[in-house]
Design a protein that fits this description.
- By secondary structure, this protein is mainly alpha-helical.
- It folds into three domains: 2-20 and 143-212, no CATH class; 40-134, Cytochrome Bc1 Complex, Chain D, domain 2, CATH 1.10.760; 230-372, no CATH class.
- The chain has 18 helices and two strands.
- It has helices at 2-39, 58-61, 65-73, 75-80, 84-92, 106-120, 143-175, 189-212, 230-236, 241-244, 247-250, 259-266, 287-298, 330-336, 341-345, 362-371, 386-394, 410-413; strands at 277-278, 284-285.
- The protein starts with a helix and ends with a helix.
- The relative contact order is 0.10.
C-alpha cells in the first residue's frame, strides 16, 4: 500500500507539473501579446510596415541583441552613441523618434520578442480581404491544444495508476499476501484532493480573468447605421481627424460630427467610386447606397435645395466608453500632450469598420503615463515645473515623463 501511494504521488506530481508548464507557456504567450498591444502596436505590426517597420525577424536584423534591448529602452541614446545599424534605421524612417521604454524590464522585452517570433513565422493575412463563406481568418489560439494535451496526460496518469494497482495485486497474490479491498475512485482521498486542486486552479484562473475583464470591450466592433469607412475618409482622402472630431483639440470630448458636417462634402459627392468595401464578416458593401442612407438622415433630396431643419441625428453606436468614475480629457492629451490619435485608437486610417483597439484599462493608461515623454519645449502649459526645466538644462534629466509630473497619482483621473 505504501508503494502504491508513492507511485501515485509521483504520477500526480508529474501530471500537475506538466499541466502547470503548459499553462504557464500559454500565459507567457498571452503576456507577450498583451505587452505588444500596450507598447508596440500603435506604431508597429508584425508583417507589415506602419509608422515604424514590420517587426517580424527583428532579432535577426540586429547584429547585437544587447543593442536591440538598449534601442527598445532608449533609442535616442543608441543613436547618439553612433551605432551604425541604429543610425541607418533612424534615417531610413525619416528620423521618426520612437517612444522611450526605459522602465520596461528585460523579461517583458523577452515576452514581446517571443510573441513577435511566433507570429512572424505565420503567413501574413490581410484582414480586409474576404474569404470563402464570409468568414475572416482569425489569429491562431493554442488554448484548445494545450487543454487536450493536459487531458491526455491526466488520462495516461490515471491508466498508469490502475496498471500499478493490478500489478501490485498480482504480486501480492503470488506471495500469498491477503488482498485488501480497493478503495473506489470516488472515495479515494488522493483522487479527490487532486481533482479539487485542479478545479480550484482552473476555476480561480477564469474567475480572476473574468473579473479583470469586467467592463472592458477590447475589439468591440458594433454594426453602425451607416457603413462609414475611416480608411476611405481619413486614409485615402487624407481628411484630418479634427475636421470631424474638432472637440478632441478643444474640449474633454472628441464629439461625433453632426449631419451637416457630413453634408459639407456629400452635397457634391453622391456616388462612391473607390476600391471595394467589405464588412468585418467579408460581405461587400455598396458605398453609394450608404451615401443614400446619409441623405435620408439629412432629409435631403437630390436636385432640390437642402432644408437642414428636416435633418435628424445619425444614431451611431458608441464604441469607446470609460467608467463614470474615470476622468479623461481629449484636449489635454491631443493639444498639450501631443498624443497622436493612433496611440489609443490604433491604425484608424486603415479601418473600414472601427473597433476598440486598446483595452483602455487602468494598467494600460498608467503604463502609457510611465513611458510617454512630456514635450517641454515651447509648451507654456509646463512652465510651472521650474525644477524639471533646470534639470533638463543641467543634463541631470534627459526627459520628463507624464508620471514625473503626477500622471500616476490617483486624483488625476479619479476625484
Amino acid at each position: 500500500m505504501i508503494h502504491l501511494r508513492s507511485i501515485m504521488g509521483k504520477l500526480t506530481f508529474i501530471a500537475a507539473f506538466c499541466f502547470f508548464v503548459l499553462f504557464s507557456n500559454q500565459s507567457f504567450s498571452q503576456d507577450g501579446k498583451a505587452l505588444f498591444s500596450q507598447n508596440c502596436a500603435s506604431c508597429h505590426a508584425i508583417n507589415k510596415d506602419l509608422t515604424g517597420p514590420a517587426l517580424a525577424g527583428v532579432e535577426d536584423r540586429w547584429p547585437d541583441k544587447k543593442m536591440l534591448y538598449s534601442w527598445i529602452k532608449n533609442n535616442q541614446a543608441v543613436i547618439k552613441s553612433g551605432y551604425p545599424y541604429a543610425v541607418d534605421l533612424y534615417n531610413k524612417w525619416n528620423k521618426t523618434q520612437m517612444n522611450l521604454f526605459t522602465s520596461l524590464p528585460d523579461k517583458d522585452i523577452d515576452a514581446i520578442l517571443g510573441y513577435i517570433k511566433v507570429e512572424g513565422s505565420k503567413p501574413a493575412v490581410d484582414p480586409n480581404k474576404p474569404v470563402p463563406g464570409g468568414v475572416v481568418a482569425e489569429e491562431g489560439d493554442n488554448t484548445l491544444l494545450f487543454g487536450i494535451l493536459t487531458l491526455i496526460l491526466a488520462i495516461v496518469a490515471f491508466v498508469l495508476l490502475q496498471v500499478n494497482a493490478n500489478l501490485k495485486k498480482l504480486a501480492d497474490d503470488k506471495e500469498g499476501i491477503p488482498a485488501t479491498e480497493p478503495v473506489p475512485v470516488w472515495r479515494n482521498k488522493v483522487y479527490i484532493m487532486f481533482a479539487t486542486l485542479v478545479l480550484f486552479t482552473i476555476g480561480g484562473y477564469y474567475t480572476v480573468m473574468g473579473a479583470i475583464g469586467l467592463g472592458r470591450s477590447q475589439d468591440y466592433q458594433p454594426e453602425q447605421p451607416i457603413f462609414y469607412s475611416h480608411k476611405v475618409h481619413a486614409g485615402t482622402n487624407q481628411i484630418s481627424c479634427l475636421y470631424c472630431h474638432g472637440g478632441a483639440q478643444e474640449s474633454k470630448h472628441a464629439n461625433i460630427p453632426s449631419v451637416n458636417v457630413c453634408m459639407n462634402c456629400h452635397m457634391a459627392i453622391n456616388e462612391y467610386k473607390g476600391e471595394a468595401l467589405y464588412t468585418a464578416e467579408g460581405e461587400e458593401v455598396n458605398g453609394t447606397n450608404e451615401i443614400k442612407k446619409l441623405y435620408k438622415y439629412a432629409g435631403y433630396e437630390e436636385g432640390k435645395p437642402w432644408d437642414a431643419t428636416k435633418a435628424k441625428p445619425v444614431e451611431w453606436v458608441k464604441i469607446h466608453s470609460l467608467p463614470d468614475h474615470v476622468y479623461f480629457n481629449h484636449s489635454q492629451h491631443v493639444a498639450v500632450g501631443k498624443v497622436q490619435c493612433q496611440t489609443c485608437h490604433g491604425e484608424i486610417t486603415k479601418m473600414n469598420e472601427v473597433y476598440q483597439f486598446a483595452d483602455l484599462s487602468m494598467g494600460w493608461c498608467i503604463n502609457c503615463h510611465r513611458e510617454t515623454k512630456v514635450q517641454f519645449a515651447d509648451n507654456g502649459f509646463y512652465s510651472i515645473y521650474e525644477k524639471y526645466h533646470e534639470d533638463m538644462k543641467n543634463g541631470t534629466m534627459d526627459s520628463v515623463t507624464v508620471a514625473n509630473i503626477g500622471g500616476t497619482e490617483c486624483q488625476k483621473c479619479h476625484y
